[in-house]
Specification:
Distance between the termini: 62 Å
Helix content: 25-40%
Radius of gyration: 25 Å
Shape: globular
Length: 604
Amino acid sequence: MKTWKELLAEKKAANSSVAENPSYNNLAKTLETEQPVKTLTIKERLAAIAAKKHPPAQPSESPISNASSFPKTMIVSMLSEENKGKEEKKESFSLSVEYDSDQLNAIELAKSGKSFVLIGAAGSGKTTVERGIMLALLAQMKENETHDFRIQGTAQRITSAAIAISAPTRIASGNSRKAICKDPTLAERCFYNVTTNHNLLEYYPEFFFDAEKDKESMRFVPKRTRSNPLTTKTIMFEEASMNDLLIWGKIYDAMQAGTQCIFIGDINQLPPVFGPSILNYALVQLPIIELKTIYRQAEGSSILDNAHRILKGENVKTDVDFQVLEGKSDVQYGQRKQCQVIMNQVAVWLKQGKYDPEQDIFLTPFNVQPLGSIHVNSCLASLINPNVDVWEIIAGVRKLYVAVGDKIMYNKQIGVIKEIAHNGLYSGSPKPKHHSKHLSRFGHYLAGANSLEAQDEEDSGLASFNINLEEMDKEDVKELSRQASAVVTIVLTDTEEEVKLSKVGDLSESSFSLAYALTVHKSQGCEWRKMFLLLHKDHSLMAFRELLYTAVTRAREQVVIIGKMFMVDKAISNPRIKGNSVREKVEYFNANLQMQEGIFCEKR
């Protein structure tokens, strides 16, 4: 076994290189009209990630990464081929919508070069307007008005028109790219113009000498700054309510004077949890265009119809694609029993192929309690990824119970755990339980466990080192104190990038979690095939209209609300944002926020 000095040296070298319960009524016919989908096994999921080719991650495989070497017609044809087989899915976006007066006003304002805010509820045609704006700006843009975009997840670059659509997360940018690039012209000319805020700024790891620590350290900094500015003429900010002032400050610093900024959002959704966003400032500094006509409505779908019923304070109408599962009893169970009942039904859906964890999501108002995202994630992981070695990982005061093959979220990016190994640098106490197929997702050994499960520390790979603290400098001691009990290797779904997580901060609650269930707040900017919302009477504190609306509009094909109808009605009748006019809505959207002085939404 290596000594702690050897392991620490390796670490530094690596860092320096770049039951049977009551059932719900009508559950049997909840999804009866659907075609079963195949739930991937752990091996299949990892193999799919390894085999899947995303254009941002694999530019050499992308039809337009070397656009100059292909005829234009061939590029469009290849993009169409890439999406073959997906046409049978219901799509949320359409190219056939004609512009109404509000949409035309937005396009004309964009052509004038003025900055403004574009707001509208789900289905009001914001994406349609974005496409129209990009096409209009492309038509009037000079040939030399270009920007070198870094291709997401790579070091490669591509020169394209000086228009960008920037989103707060990769999930949001992926959804936006898919919608924008339905237009063949935009797919050909602007595929990589849709990106994330951090990629637009080209964040990269920088190594520097920290005089205070008397050692070399690393930090992530933007390559695009005032001295190396963005050359984009127009930037459209998707999900602008999710952009905090910290990232906006970096973007503002990197923009050239006169850059047109278009902030896009839906003020009917939940306000940001981190304080005022740049959208809060834009709403009081810039012209506002509100899209009021609803277009996005798949034939036979009631999701958008009910979303706008919720906004109007009207009762929802249930249908095949909009279910409210109340259960047989008039009495609401406690959260723990309710969770058991739900998991029994989820097990049935899994077997029937009617719940696919790769495409569907469970949402809940809270993180904590038995129907909070943390507990529900553990329950779902037990069903979705069973009969695997479960590891107890100690990361500071937090204990996690995860396994290879688990779907996770790391820094707002979805991924899969590829490997878990003991961290030889961990010297904390207590030692974690031995990993085992008999270890539950809640830290208890199940039936079948034997004395071998409680192996000694040396056998488990966590034998204590004979560490002489006097031989260690202050930074080495601090480095050891930051270590988690295991090294978790994950593969990020979007880029297929492998990331090793070994420190307490890497595995903190704010950075790392299972991703089968999320809070409604965390789900903003994302879209799934089906959305299952857990709504309990204990959630009354969060039962308001904007939360319900946000949850419902995350679904593309089906909404399933698991809870009593009185909770749905309570949420509908309890709006946080009151008023009908734009001014009234903005007042409530910005209410109770401490707005800072000196924040500007355009650079003159």
